[in-house]
Design goal:
heterodimer; A: 2 helices; 0% strand; B: mainly alpha; globular
């Protein structure tokens, strides 16, 4: 396990590379999903009869 | 099929049905791909374990160019046929393409430091991909720079089309100039030159990134269509509009 984590001496390059990919792409996916839910909720609220939004 | 789906209401129905399956497939392929890339793929005989960076870097680079082509083609359709879905597709894809380009640049830098001894060199491949990143940022900024979304959309579409010239430059930069960046080893005449044990996880990650791109573009297109409907509702009150999606 420690041997695997060490990545043959390239740990300082391999792990940050994967971390950046997960953070950037995962972050974009999370942001897109939150916006999707928020807009859906706003739309439902705007459509409610008697609601002036 | 594309012309049938080009109706916003049909698009909302179809994309709503496809999206959960697409998201599940993306998660599954990326999970298997990551474990394969990080655990089961063998170290390269020259690069050692640093080759694992390639399983993220190369698919991200492919997606960076492919996403730009998608933005450009959708922009052309939007300019020529004035189809609202095409413009929405281009604008939904641009931030996803920019994210892939950023990942490509950073992971390439993290590989270049131990392998080349430099975080960055101004060779033709690296420079043209940096230009691609700025094209994405310029497109996104231009689209949002106008009070009238229609004008922003047109200006952005024209920029996207002009920027297409950069795509062949990226692809052939390693052949046309003496670059430090290595030439193509997968999509080349005569077939791939990398070992199957490294090629398979690479292709799996590429499939995962492609699925992720498709899922995010659909999700962001649905969001944009809802936003348009919301704007219309707020402008015209409760009056029902033709083409109201879903």
């Amino acid at each position: 396990m420690t041997g695997w984590l060490a990545m043959g001496g390239y740990a300082a390059f391999v792990w940050p590379a994967y971390a950046v990919a997960v953070i950037v792409l995962g972050g974009l996916a999370a942001m897109s999903w939150r916006r999707y839910r928020a807009v859906r909720r706003e739309l439902d609220a705007a459509r409610r009869p008697g609601d002036d939004a | 099929m594309l012309t049938r789906l080009a109706n916003p209401a049909r698009f909302m129905r179809a994309s709503g049905a496809v999206l959960p399956w697409l998201a599940a497939a993306t998660a599954l392929v990326l999970a298997v791909g990551l474990v394969w890339a990080l655990v089961f793929a063998p170290p390269d005989y020259q690069q050692g374990e640093s080759v694992r960076i390639m399983f993220v870097h190369v698919p991200a680079a492919w997606m960076a160019s492919a996403a730009y082509l998608f933005v450009a083609v959708a922009s052309a359709v939007a300019l020529v046929w004035r189809h609202p879905l095409a413009e929405i597709a281009a604008q939904a894809a641009a931030p996803v393409g920019a994210a892939f380009t950023f990942v490509c640049l950073v992971t390439g830098s993290l590989w270049g430091r131990p392998m080349w001894g430099a975080w960055w060199v101004w060779d033709a491949r690296l420079t043209s991909v940096l230009v691609l990143f700025f094209l994405y940022l310029g497109y996104i900024a231009l689209v949002n720079a106008f009070d009238d979304p229609a004008r922003g959309g047109r200006a952005g579409a024209i920029l996207a089309l002009v920027g297409v010239i950069n795509l062949p430059i990226i692809k052939f930069s390693v052949d046309w100039w003496n670059t430090l960046h290595q030439p193509a080893s997968v999509f080349r005449l005569g077939g791939p030159t990398i070992a199957l044990s490294l090629l398979l996880p690479l292709l799996l990650m590429a499939l995962g990134f492609t699925l992720l791109f498709a899922a995010l573009v659909l999700l962001r297109m649905r969001t944009a269509l809802w936003e348009r409907r919301l704007r219309a509702l707020r402008l015209y009150g409760g009056v029902s509009l033709p083409h109201a999606a879903e």
